[in-house]
Amino acid sequence: MVTFRLRTNDDQVVEISEEALRQSITLRSMVEGTDMEDGSMEIPLGEVDGDTTKKIVEWCEHHKKDPAPEPEVHETGPRPSAPPFDMPSWDRQFLNKDKLSIPEMAKLITAANYLEVTWLYKFCCKRIFIDYIKDRPVAQLKEMFQPSDLIIQD
Predict the structure, then answer these.
(1) What is the CB neighbour count within 10 angstroms for residue 108?
(2) DSSP class of residue 146?
(3) Of 17, 51, 107, 145, which is the most buried if we count CB atoms within 10 A?
(4) Is 79 inside any structural domain?
């Protein structure tokens, strides 16, 4: 079985199986038709840190037998609302708010979007909505998502 080495922006190396790598549209397109198909080269992930990469690899390894996602086609004009979907229990546990802080979840959702791990991205969005946004007043959301120690400079 071929494994690939992912080099993170904090210089960690994380291994991922070929089957699990297929869950990322970005990584899959990077290795298809190149010398990297044999797993001999490292894939640089300049936008993702080591801890976040490990979480993504864990998710991909669990879902490696699932069908590989296809790139979404973005059409112009009004889009119909997305159909509702159920999140499997393993994914609910994996993304449990008691296990992931808001900053960790933000890193995970950004990395899942960057690497095009489609279902992980959708599950993260759903968890953020369910755990942090749904039925909360705007004032509470502003306080929760705008840390007081964040200083914006012009």
Answers:
(1) 26
(2) S
(3) 107
(4) no
User: What is the domain-level CATH number for residue 129?
Assistant: 3.30.710.10
- pLDDT tens digits, one per residue of 55-99: 999 999 999 999 888 887 766 767 666 667 788 999 999 998 888
Judging by beta carbons within 10 Å of its beta carbon (0-12, 13-18, 19+), is residue 77 exposed, middle or buried? exposed
pLDDT in tens, 109-133: 999 999 999 999 999 988 888 877 7
Rounded CA gap, 113 and 128, in Å?
14
User: What's the whole-number average pLDDT of the chain?
Assistant: 85
Domain presence at residue 103 = yes
Residue 52 resides in a domain? yes
d(C-alpha 35, C-alpha 40), whole Å: 8
